[in-house]
Amino acid sequence: METERPKIEMGFVEVLKDVSVPEKKQAKFECTVTKEVPKVMWFKGVEVVTPSPKYEIIDDGQKHMLVINSCAFEDEAEYTIEVLGQRSTAQLRVEGKWPTEPPSFVQSLQDQTVKEGNTVRFDLELSHENVPVVWYRNEVKLHVSRTVLTYTEGRRHTLEMRSLSLDDTCQIKAEAKGFYSTAKLTVIGNTAVPIFFLSRVACLLVVTFGQCFYFKACFFKFELYFCKDE
Q1: Cβ neighbours of 217 (radius 10 Å)
Q2: Which sequence spans correspond to the domains of the chain?
Q3: Are 68 and 61 in contact (CB under 8 A)?
Q4: Would you give per-residue pLDDT tens digits along the chain (230 residues)?
Q5: pTM given for the model
Q6: What is the CATH number of domain 105-188?
Q7: Which of the listed residues 46, 83, 189, 225 has the most CB atoms within 10 Å of its CB?
Q8: Burial class of residue 157, CB neighbours in 10 A (0-12, 13-18, 19+)
Q9: Pick the CATH number of 12-95 from 2.40.50.140, 3.30.365.10, 3.40.190.10, 2.60.40.10
Q10: Do domains 12-95 and 105-188 have the same CATH topology?
């Protein structure tokens, strides 16, 4: 009687690694997963990558590769592979000389204070188009997700963070070709949240003289005060 083989869980044996190549050269992103899968998806930022003269997608068993031909500055971005709901992301940097002066910040990031639960947007403008911007939260690189989005329109770049919590208070940094702009994000409590009691204090309490008594009320997040009529 054959013993049933244990199921192999999906995972990455080797994740994508950042790649740096000279302008007009070829770049390769490679990863290895724990088992063969019928399909993987590649992304440049949030855009799906499909086979073309620019992109070659190679699947060889458990090994997967994305080849980017004739790299240009506008190819600089985060590239992601998605396999059965799991993702690995890495950055492409293209080395070369700028045709004019190096990029600079025309509009820098500004400090912002936002109530928890809301959305914040950090905007900047560069002196050049087609310059990739990498965003950081407390020096940790941010990746696009359900609550973190990035937008680019010409020389303008935007970071959007949704459903903020108090823990999102941090320093935001944008990096463009070795140049930086920073700002502070402060998230404050949303006092507009309705307050209600989960249990009510008894309207009347009769005790024997000299006895101890206590009132108990359940509340959430806010300070609670008891008052005694004079």
Answers
A1: 11
A2: 12-95, 105-188
A3: no
A4: 555 666 778 889 999 999 999 988 999 999 999 998 888 999 998 889 999 999 999 999 899 999 999 998 889 889 999 998 899 999 998 887 655 567 889 999 999 999 999 999 999 999 888 788 999 999 999 988 889 999 988 889 999 999 999 999 999 999 988 889 999 999 998 765 555 555 555 556 666 776 776 666 655 455 566 666 65
A5: 0.52
A6: 2.60.40.10
A7: 83
A8: buried
A9: 2.60.40.10
A10: yes
| Residue keyed to tokens 């005694």 | 228
DSSP string, 13-76: EE----EEEETTS-EEEEEEESS--S--EEEETTEEE--SSSEEEEEETTEEEEEE-S--GGG-
